[in-house]
Structure formats: structure tokens, C-alpha cells
Amino acid sequence: MPRLRTVLLVAGTALVARRAMRRRIQASPLWPMPALDEPISGRPRARALRLLLTRHETVADGVAQLRLEGQALPAWEPGAHLDLVLPSGLIRQYSLCGDPEDTSSYTVATRLVEDGRGGSREVHEQLQEGMEIEVRGPRNRFPLAPDAPSYVFVAGGIGITPILPMLRALDARGADWHLLYGGRTRASMPFLEEVEKLGGERGRVTVVAEDADGRPDLAGLFADRAPGTAVYCCGPEGLMEAVAAALPGHCELHLERFAPHTSADGNGPFEVELRRSGRTVAVPAGTSVLAAVRAEVPSVSYSCEQGFCGTCQQRVLEGEIDHRDELLTDSERDDSMLICVSRARGERLVLDL
Ligand code: FES
């Protein structure tokens, strides 16, 4: 009998312990989700490479150019960008502005943003020649249309970086192109000499330095353009909005943003139900869904926090989405969102998380 009592006691204790453990697991923010080493969307992360920083030089006021060397580097096409994983862990995207034929190095350039979020300052002040830098990509969300009848480019300051390889490629094949390149001063505009040389005597390049020339004449730039002209613009948000407003209906606009598109309205609070984990989080005004969700689910996947990489894509089960990214396709927008930038149109969203 004492032996039977002991067996029953051990079995009962094990059962209680098992139930307690199960309750703790179910209360965990990870239950019943799998570990989130990979994005829940299944969107693959770009391959990572470690490259040697062999050149870090100033090429215009406040603009640093970096040369990163490796071997047999993945190919890229004009318009592509790299993710740089900075020593602090910040990830920033920079357009490739070197030669796509060069498979031993990548070249990027970045402007120091005094009141930015720290990425450009780290590039300018912490990175040094001889350091190894992790990069991911290249990826291209700003590709050059192969067969437009003519091309018009509008670059604002550092926005020249994705456009420069496009100009070289178009010039090499004798395509019809024109560039309007604007900046605060000539000294602040990187690659100005090369750009003017590319334009040559043919009047293909119009340089507008604001301190000397004032505002660019966009209406004049678009006057008499042929139907189907491909217009590429990269620069500050205000410039891109002005180009979109001045664009004739028969031209095709392509935009490259260095910062997430922001909406003046619709930044108010709402709540997000995480259906699989059985929780609801409040998203205050001015806080991203990602930040609110991370407080409950620290392992949720994310990377750029700017709506560029797609790592934070989540399926949406209910609610109307206010999409604020430039990445997702129309069909992806039907039932998913990038939670680092996009918000709810109403008071509530339900995520499959
Ligand atoms: S974290 Fe990169 S798109 Fe959201």
C-alpha cells in the first residue's frame, strides 16, 4: 500500500506540473506560433555578405562615398540598392552608384542627415576603411524601363545615386534622355562633374542650384515630351510631390523614396488583435503597429522599419488597412500589411499573429 501511495503521489505531482507548464506555455507570446527566425510572410531575407570597406571619402558637402570590396559579388542593375548592417545593428538602404560590370566592389553614397535617426551619422562618423561591413542584397525596386521612347530624370541632391548608373547605361546605348539635377548649392551635389560631362554639349543636363538658380521649372521640363516618356524621380518628398503634380498624363512616373511615405492624416490611435496569441494591443497615435506588437511579441520579424524590406509583412484577417509602403503588390495588399509603416483606416485590425 505505501508503494501504491508513492506511485499515485508522483503521478499526481507530474500531472499538476505538466498542467502548470502548459498554462505557462499558452500564456507565452510565442504560443502557438513557431519561432520567428524567418519572416512570417515567407518573404526571403536577402543574402548576407561581409565586405571590406576599402574607401570612405567625402565627394560633396555632407556626402560620403563608400567602396565595399569582395569577390564574385552578385550582379545588379541600375536602380538597385544594398542594405548595410551598421555596427550598431541599424540597417539602412543605399542605392548602388558604381559600375554594374564591376563584380569585385559595390559603391554607395550617403548624405549626413543631422536630425535623422542615426544611420547616416554612424556611416559618416563611425565607419572606417579596413572595417568589415555586412551587406544584404542587392535588390531593385526602381528598375529602368527597357524600351521607353525617351527618359526624363529628376534628381534632388543625394537622389542622384540610383539615377547615375541609369544615365551611364542609357548614354552607352544612345537612348534619348534628359536630367534635371537640383540641390541647395553646387558644392552639396555629388557626382556633379561626371553628370555634366555625360550631358556634354547636347544640353541633356539641367543643373539647378537653389542658392543661385531658385526653383526648377518642372512645367518647362515636361513640355512637349513624347507619349510614353519614362520619368524617374528620386529626392526629397516635396520634390517628388511637385513632379507628380506637374507630370503630363501621357508620361510614366517612377519614384524612389529614401524615407517612408508619410500621410498627414490618419495617424490616430487604434487597436490590433493578435488572433493566434489571443491578445489585443493598443497602437497609440504616432506609434507604429510594429512597436506596439513588439511589446507583446518581442520575436516578431522586422529589419528596416521603413517599409522597404518586407520582413515585417503580416497577414491581416479583419479591418481596413492604410497601406503606406511602396513594396507590396496589389494582391499582397488585399490581405497583408507591412506593420512597420502601415496603419488601420478604422479603429481595429486583426492580424494572423
Ligand atoms: S521592417 Fe522592413 S518593411 Fe517593415
From TrEMBL:
Q: Which UniProt keywords apply?
A: 2Fe-2S, Flavoprotein, Iron, Iron-sulfur, Metal-binding, Oxidoreductase
Q: Name one Pfam family in it.
A: Fer2
Q: Which cofactor does it need?
A: FAD
Xref: InterPro entries: 2Fe-2S_ferredoxin-like_sf (IPR036010), 2Fe-2S_ferredoxin-type (IPR001041), 2Fe2S_fd_BS (IPR006058), Beta-grasp_dom_sf (IPR012675), FAD-bd_FR_type (IPR017927), FNR_nucleotide-bd (IPR039261), MRET (IPR050415), OxRdtase_FAD/NAD-bd (IPR001433)
Signal peptide annotation = none
Judging by the UniProt lineage, the source's domain of life is Bacteria
Molecular function terms in GO for this entry?
2 iron, 2 sulfur cluster binding; metal ion binding; oxidoreductase activity
Which positions fall inside the FAD-binding FR-type domain? Answer: 44-145
Matches recorded under CDD domains: fer2 (cd00207), PDR_like (cd06185)
Q: Where is the 2Fe-2S ferredoxin-type domain?
A: 270-353
Record-given protein name: Oxidoreductase
- Give the source species: Streptomyces antnestii
